[in-house]
Structure formats: C-alpha cells, structure tokens
Write a structure and sequence with these properties.
The structure holds two protein chains of two kinds. By secondary structure, chain A is α+β, with helices and mostly antiparallel strands. Chain A contains eight helices and 18 strands. The two termini of chain A are 31 Å apart. Classes of the chains: A alpha+beta, B mainly beta. At the A-B interface, helix 2, helix 3, strand 2, helix 4 and strand 6 of A face strand 1, strand 2, strand 3, strand 5 and strand 6 of B.
Chain lengths: 446, 267
C-alpha cells in the first residue's frame, strides 16, 4: 500500500561503507551483478518468517539508575540511586468509553560519601487517571486527572498553564522528562473537532487546601506522602481554559488559548509553527497577562499589576546525517532583569524564596535565556543516540550542559548521562550545590 | 544520447504510434498517467483504510532490526492524496507514538510527554527511514508519468513479465523521491518493480512488489522487498497485513486529535 519502504542511506553511512566500496562499485556497474544482488535479496525475503505483533493497550517499564554527584567545595559528594516503575494504560471498553491510567513509582536512595549514612524515599506519582466518553466521533468528554499540556516549544512553555506545581519527582532535567513525569490536574474537559480545527474547554476545580496565584513558595496543603494523590498541588485553585485551533492554510495551524485562574486576570496563549524548508521548522509560543511580577509574588506582596509577556521561539534544523539541532530563545518579562537579579543575589532569604517559586512554577527566573539541543540518532554506530543539551542564562551568563549517550537493545535502553553547571554563586546554574554529575541508567520494557 | 536511451525512445515512440493508431479504432487512449493511476488503485483501496506494516531489516544477510506500524489513511477530498496517521506498534519503547502527515504538515506525538511537535520531512523517526517511505501515496497525483519502454522484466517471484516502464518525474518538491522508474504489468497494471532516484539522479533504492493476494476484492501486493541503491546487502522486507476499510474521520487528521487517538476507535 505504501510507495516504497524505508532505509535510504545517509552521508555518515556512506563513510562507513567505504571499506567495501570498491567491490560494491564494481557490483553497481555491472547489470549482471546487480541482477544477482536482486535475486539474493528476494531469496532472503523468501526466508523471512511471518511475525505477528499485536497493538497493546498498555506499556510498562522499569528503570534503574546509579549516579555520582560532585558538589560545591565544602559539601561532600553523594551517590544517588533509583529504581522506577512506570505503567501506562489506554484501554477502550467499547466504542464510546475509554479509560486512561498513567502511574510512576520512584524508589530513591542517596548515599553520602565514605559511608556517612544514607537517605531513602519513595514517591508515587499518579500522572493520569480519567475516563473518556466519545459522544460523537468529533465530540468528546473527559473526567478525572488529566495531564493537560499546552505549547509547542521544546524547553520553555509559557502557555503550558498547568505546569505550575505539577512536578512531584524530578528524575531528569531533560525537557521531555519534566513534561512526562508530572501530576495531571483533576478536571472536566470537552473537545469538539472539525476538519482542520478544534475547540476545547475545561474546568479544573480547587481541591483541598491548595492555593492559587502562585503566591507561596510551596503549595499550601501539598501532600508529600509517598502515595498521596497530592490534589492540593495539582488543583490549587479554580481554573478554566478555552483553546481554539484552526488550519488557515497548508502548513499553518495556530492555536489560541484563553486561561483563567481564580484571583488572577485572564491569560492569553498563542502557539504557531511553520515549515520553512524540508529540513527547517520554526515555532513560537507566547503568553501574556496582567499580573504581578515574579519578584512580587515571591515576596507575597501586592502592588501594581502590569501586562507581562512570555515568549519561547526557536527553530529545528535537520542535517542529512540525521542530526537535528534546535535553538530556542526564551523571554520572560515578569522575571528579573540584570540589575534586579544582581540585587536579589545579595538578599539570601529573598533569593531563596524567589528561586523556589520559579522552580515550582517551572518559570525562568531571569529575563533572557537560551536553549540548545542537538540530537543525533544512529550516531557513529547503529542504535546509538547522542544528545547534547545546553541551557544558557543570558542575564548572568551561567550555563548548564547535559550530554547523553543512549544505546538501544531490543527490549532495553542503556544510557550514560553527564551534567555540569557553571556560573557565579548567585547565578541561575552556578547557585546549585551540584557541580558535575554522572548517571548510568538501564531501562527495560516489558 | 546513449544507445540504451535511444532504443528506449524508439520503443516509446513506436508504442505511442501504435496507441494512436489503435485509438483511431477504439477509444479512449490509455496514457502513462492512466497506467500509473491504475497501478495506484491496485496498491491503495478506494476509501479510507487501515493496515499493519512490518519492516524487517537485513545487513549482510543478518537481521538487524524490525518494527511494526499501524497505518490509517484517508484521501483528501480536495486533492485526492492520502493523509496518513501512523501509530508505532513495536519496538516497545516506541509503542503508541504517532506520526501524522496532512499535506505538507508533519506532526509527531509522544503519548508519554503529551508533546505534539512539528517535524520536517528530513527528520527521520524510523531508524534510517525517511518519513515519506511508509506513507500511503497515490503516485499519479505527485508525479508526471511518461512511457520509457515496453520490456520484459523479472518480477519479485523471479518470473519474466511483459511490462511498461514508466518514468515518473516529481510535480513538486514535497515528495521523497525526485524521479522513479516504475515497471507495470502490461496485462493487469500491477506494480512489478521500482527504482527510486535522488535529485542528483543517484539510485537510492530498488523495490520489488510481490506476494499478490486478494484484499478488499483486489489482488494487491502484500510484500515489498527493498534493496539499497549503494549497498545491495542492505535489504528491507516490508509486509502489510490486516488491510481493512477503517472509518478515519476528517476531524481526526489534525494535531489536536493526536493526544486522543486510540487505534480501537478506527474500526
């Protein structure tokens, strides 16, 4: 049914094949040899056994990690380790009803250097648990805990309004992991679709003693119990959202979002992307609202509200060797500029509260930031993926580097990760206790 | 001009003259484009459908990879070209990921991170596969076909077949291959073999269509054997199964539906 099958060669592979180049060239130049090669291929296909792979409604994997963290001068190095169990189920009961469940359990352990003791914790994160009713093929209703994720930027998502307070267990600073391993919010959601567009509406009520507006460093009422549902963190205030997207023309389908949280002014979100060439895609994500600045929120003070914009804009270019390079510029008008950031750095407690708030909200603490990600699949050898991530604070010039080598086996991944943070003592990345860290991971899929 | 191309042009001219003469007696004329469209109709059902596609990859006679995809396709009411929704079934690490192609729009969705990301045609998600390789395509809509020759060609079952050799030139830049040489069975318009070329006219792949079986009322190829253009020991066997008409509503073929797609819905 398809036009052709995969496996076109890349420039890298051309290089690796030079060893057999002469013989191959001779073969290509000879129609008889080419014919023989074709016959060999057909014979091989004859011998290929029939295999049946059924679509599964669940996925389950376990991940083990051993690490070493080198910390700042005066603080001893530590050895973290972790075992994680991750289950996701998407089960269809009948033509109209479907159930979704996503749960993760992290068993963490930290050993201090030279046997000075250890700490243990177990954190269960119920990411999603909801029922979905397909009233009509183009009209749906969902109820339960849902990970509602907006935004199409890679690393900073200003229109992802449900990210605040959603992180319960951070196992990696990779953007995909931060999006994946978080709490969904309890909500009622409906969506209507038509050709080339959709409209969705949702309501997420306040539950427990959570507080809205991000005015606290730690969500009040947050339940840190190992197996807590932690609804106070995921549902800190009454919130609703409308999202509309429409395909205007081939290659351009912007999305408009209107979000409202009790006690705050409505927020506007916008997402758009374009295909500039067959190797280059561009994107922009924006949000804007009247609010207090991050610093005002951190100090829990009132004051004049003003309109603040946040933007994340970038491009991904793919080179012929299957290497993709993403560059993303991030702007947060509500965060501190250079002068304010330097001044805050001299105020120990206030600095700590500000950083805690920014972390909890998954917001950038300074106004200008840069993100770069290079992903090279089948790099140097088959099944080996290399990723290099760089986060650069353009205000205080601190930097975070993250490098991963991941090898794929049939049912398992083996990964080695290295992370390094550099900068002054009060900078975004230099303030962390961790300087360098190494992690070895094995992930097994059942 | 090479002797081969001269001979081929002579054959093509003779064929066209014969066709014109025949047409004076019996209408209508079958053009190269018609032949291509007839071949498309053998590869692709006439309304929205789904199938499973298993790719088994060999290098130097040794199996090095395999993956399975579930493909759902629906023709665009305006252009007639297929829009494809592809769900990764195996390997397990990729299970549930989705790739949507709607015209020039390519979206990739990872269900674990809930991220829908626009990707460019150059971004490959299937090992070395180009995204367009596994898509359902009506070639007649994307290529200008011309008749190169009539010749006997060895098919995928190693039998000699009387064929039309068509030369397909891309109508626009949104296709995976700039040029295709395409052999079609003279007796029944079945695709027999194809050679795919880059914009620099380098041979990228050779494909044999074989294992014809009755599916949805038509004898269709259920296996395609792909031979790399540079390394003939690099072979992919692509098998299709479970071809069935599927209800794939227009409204599902968009970015906003990807987080909701469940394969059981497309029944």
């Amino acid at each position: 049914m398809t036009a052709a099958a995969p496996r076109s060669p890349s420039v890298t592979q051309l290089g690796t094949r030079l060893g057999t180049g002469l013989a191959m060239l001779a073969a290509l130049l000879s129609p008889a040899a080419a014919q023989a090669d074709d016959l060999d291929a057909l014979s091989l296909a004859d011998q290929t056994p029939q295999t049946e792979v059924e679509q599964q409604s669940w996925q389950f994997f376990t991940e083990g990690m051993l690490g070493y963290i080198n910390r700042k001068e005066g603080q001893s190095d530590i050895h973290p380790s972790r075992i994680s169990l991750d289950l996701s189920v998407d089960y269809r009961f009948n033509a109209q009803w479907r159930g979704v469940l996503a749960n993760r359990l992290d068993l963490n352990r930290v050993d201090l250097k030279d046997g000075q003791g250890s700490q243990h914790e177990q954190i269960n994160t119920l990411k999603e648990a909801y029922l979905s009713w397909q009233i009509q093929p183009d009209w749906l209703l969902d109820a339960g805990r849902i990970n509602q994720r907006n935004g199409m930027a890679y690393a900073y998502n200003p229109s992802d309004f449900f990210k605040a307070g959603a992180l319960r267990s951070v196992v990696s600073i990779a953007p995909a992991s931060l999006r994946e391993n978080r709490l969904g919010s309890a909500m009622l959601r409906t969506q209507y679709l038509w050709e080339g567009g959709s409209l969705s509406a949702l309501y997420a009520p306040r539950v427990g003693d959570g507080i809205g507006d991000g005015t606290s460093n730690i969500a009040q009422g947050a339940d840190s119990g190992s197996f807590a549902l932690d609804l106070a963190s995921s549902n800190p205030a009454d919130r609703w959202q409308l999202a509309w997207s429409q395909r205007w023309f081939d290659g351009f389908s912007p999305q408009l979002i209107l979000f409202k949280e009790a006690g705050s002014a409505p927020r506007l979100g916008l997402n758009a992307s374009w295909l500039a060439s067959d190797a280059l895609s561009l994107y922009a994500e924006y949000s804007g609202a009247r609010s207090r600045s991050l610093a005002q929120k951190a100090r829990q003070i009132g004051g004049d509200e003003r309109f603040y914009s946040r933007l994340s804009s970038g491009a991904t270019y793919t080179f012929p060797v299957n290497l993709s390079l993403t560059l993303e510029y991030q702007y947060n008008q509500a965060a501190l500029d250079k002068t304010g950031w330097q001044a805050l750095g001299q105020q120990g407690a206030a600095y700590g509260r500000y950083r805690s708030l920014a972390t909890r909200e998954q917001d950038n603490p300074t106004r200008h930031n840069l993100f770069m990600l290079a992903s090279w699949n089948n790099a140097l050898m088959r099944n080996l993926d290399l990723s290099l991530m760089l986060r650069r604070d353009l205000v205080d010039h601190s930097t975070l580097h993250w490098l991963e080598a991941r090898y794929h086996f049939k049912c398992a991944d083996l990964a080695l990760q290295w992370q390094s943070q550099q900068g002054s003592a009060i900078s975004q990345y230099g303030a962390a206790a961790e300087r360098n860290s190494v992690q070895a991971l094995i992930k097994y899929y059942f | 001009m090479t002797a081969r191309s001269f001979t081929m042009k002579r054959q093509a001219l003779a064929l066209l003259l014969a066709a014109v003469m025949q047409n004076s007696l019996a209408a209508p004329t079958t053009t190269a484009q018609d032949l291509l469209a007839a071949s498309d109709a053998i590869r692709n059902p006439d309304r929205s459908f789904g199938l499973n596609n298993t790719l088994i990859e060999y290098r130097d006679g040794k199996q090095i990879d395999s993956s399975t995809l579930a493909i759902y396709a629906r023709a665009d009411s305006k252009t007639g070209q297929f829009r494809n929704l592809i769900r990764f079934v195996s390997p397990q690490r990729d299970a549930g990921k989705l790739l949507l192609k709607n015209g020039n729009d390519l979206w990739f969705f990872d269900p674990s991170s809930k991220a829908s990301v626009r990707i460019s045609p150059q971004q490959r998600l299937l090992g070395q596969a180009a995204n367009g390789d596994v898509m359902t395509v009506n070639l007649a809509l994307d290529y200008h076909a011309s008749l190169l020759a009539e010749e006997d060609v060895q098919d995928g079952e190693r039998q000699k077949r009387a064929s039309y050799l068509l030369n397909l030139k891309a109508k626009h830049g949104e296709v995976t291959y700039e040029r295709i040489e395409y052999w079609i069975d003279r007796s029944n318009s079945r695709p027999i073999k194809a050679k795919f070329y880059s914009s620099s006219d380098r041979l990228l792949k050779t494909a044999y269509y074989r294992q014809f079986k009755s599916q949805l009322g038509v004898e269709r190829p259920t296996e395609t054997v792909i031979i790399d253009g540079l390394d003939p020991k690099w072979i992919t066997v692509m098998r299709t199964s479970d071809l069935a008409y599927r209800d794939v509503p227009e409204s599902w073929l968009q970015r906003d539906y990807l987080p909701r797609f469940n394969p059981e819905q497309a029944k």
